[in-house]
Amino acid sequence: MIIVTGASKGLGKSICDNLIKSGKKVIGLARDTSNLNFKSYDCDVSDFDRLKAISKELKKDNIKVEGLINAAGIAAMNLALTTPQSTTKRIIETNLLGTIYTTQAFLPLLIRNKKGSIINFSTIAVNLSLKGESIYVASKAGVEGFTKSFAREAADFNVTVNCIAPGPINTNLIKGISEKQLEKIIKQQIFTKMHTHNDVCDLVDLLLDEKSRRITGEILNVGGA
Predict the structure, then answer these.
(1) pLDDT value of residue 77
(2) Distance between CA atoms of 165 and 170, rounded to whole angstroms?
């Protein structure tokens, strides 16, 4: 069973659909799962008590968990000086604390399975130090640092921990970016093009596969930076 956060829309939904298509069993987590037709739980990833309750239920039901994909994330493209405190708080709570909390809640299930893979999500904006995205970048830079350090802890339990950092993909996260800004970001990549959901799904498939069992602590930029 693979647990995927942010499962109700965007990249998270695409990852779920791809995994199910390939024969994997998926548990989706999202704030609203009413549109999902597979096993799922309504959950805000910044709610640690709710995450622990779900983990406890899965353990009680003897669910075998082999992967955790932290795809939940939000962004607000704005200068730091003019970003409301409430927005800053929400970005950090969802992107950084959500990733940490979800990992803390579900790692025991991976340990119980005696192996597994955790896949976190960052953004190529961290490497490019994009103007107007400093708070979003800060939250994702935290995710990258957590990934690299936590990989050393998880290795003791035969669990890999990696981070995918996509370039621009057609999701809600880029809705606030103008066409001119988007073109500028794309030109800073090694592959100067927009990427697809499939580009990311293929990488997820690789990191979940037994063939990647020695790849851990890595930040993988989709598009190159």
Answers:
(1) 82
(2) 14
In the set 106, 136, 146, 150, the catalytic residue is 136
For the chain, the structural domain boundaries read 2-222
Residue 207, CA distances (Å) to 27, 44, 108, 201 in order: 18, 25, 20, 10
Sheet containing strand 2-5, strands side by side: 40-42, 26-30, 2-5, 67-70, 116-121, 159-166, 219-222
- Domain 2-222 sits in CATH at 3.40.50.720
CB 222 within 8 A of CB 195: yes
101 catalytic per annotation: no
> If we measure between CA atoms, which residue out of 11, 112, 13 comes closest to residue 65?
112
In this prediction, residues 24-38 reach a mean pLDDT of 96
CA 46, 101, 1: angle at the middle one, nearest 5?
A: 105
Residue 167 contacts residue 122 (beta carbons within 8 Å): no
Closest among 76, 72, 8 to 38, alpha carbons compared: 8
Helix (H) or strand (E) holding 134: helix 134-154
How many of the other CB atoms lie within 10 Å of CB of 208?
20
pLDDT in tens, 124-180: 889 888 888 899 999 999 999 999 999 999 999 999 999 999 988 877 666 667 777
Taking a C-beta distance cutoff of 8 angstroms, is the pair 203, 220 a contact? yes
